[in-house]
Amino acid sequence: VAAAQGDGAIFTVFAAAVIGGVGLNGGKGTMFGAFTGILLLYMIQNVLTLAGVPAQWIQALNGAIIIIALVLSRLTGGKVQE
Prior knowledge:
Blueprint: H1 9-19, H2 31-50, H3 55-77
């Protein structure tokens, strides 16, 4: 196992957890939801890879998915921070 094998995977894992409904403030989320988020995100990545989309655009899409999921999470159930 290479020392740098998991580098760059943190954003993918974070996006998958947020998509799956894991609360960033804690207290909610299920294992099924997190697993569903992982499956959905990797399915999107595989389709884009098979379509020949460059890796930079796939990473940009991951970032956009994270931002959209965070905004939706905040709008649907988040509390205003003070």
